[in-house]
Design brief:
2 domains; 10 strands; 15% helix
Length: 159
């Protein structure tokens, strides 16, 4: 996982404290963005990068352990997603685990169904409607429509 990833609510982390098996394991980030660990209690993880969280855990553990070595890994991203709606193979939430374009999300969600209107796809983003013509983009035309999706976007595929 890239260290620039920003942790969000409901993400699943694996925290390893070297030579401290009882302090290592899966840790969930709550809906409020707070995680909890033995010895250090609650810690706000939401908004921190993996590196920043590792440093925060290490600083807290310094009160209890001599030079703790900590690693943090994001096991499952649950906080960032787009909603795929309509004539798509697998409608529903699509996780944004990395840079994802409209075409990436359509293909990753099972592609277009037979009755889908690939010319009238649109993305809803904060009250704004962004058009996407699947047929043009896969033919190399108007590739500027293949924008990077953002958390909370809704990709609508009319049928």
């Amino acid at each position: 996982m890239v260290s620039k990833y920003v942790i969000g609510p409901l993400d699943q982390l694996y925290v390893r404290v070297w030579n401290q098996g009882n302090l290592s394991g899966l840790v969930g980030v709550g809906p409020d963005g707070v995680m909890s660990m033995a010895l250090i209690g609650e810690l706000k993880a939401d908004g921190l990068t993996v590196t920043q969280l590792k440093e925060a855990i290490t600083a807290r553990l310094n009160d209890f352990l001599n030079s703790p070595e900590v690693s943090v890994e994001v096991v499952k991203i649950n906080s960032k997603s787009v909603l795929m709606i309509g004539g798509i193979g697998h409608p529903g939430k699509f996780p944004l685990t990395e840079k994802t374009t409209v075409l990436d999300a359509i293909v990753g969600s099972g592609g277009l169904r037979d009755l889908a209107n690939g010319k009238k796809i649109y993305i809803l983003r904060g009250g704004k409607k962004i058009m996407f013509n699947y047929k043009d983009v896969i033919q190399g035309k108007h590739t500027e429509q293949n924008i990077e999706l953002q958390n909370g976007d809704q990709v609508v595929v009319p049928e």
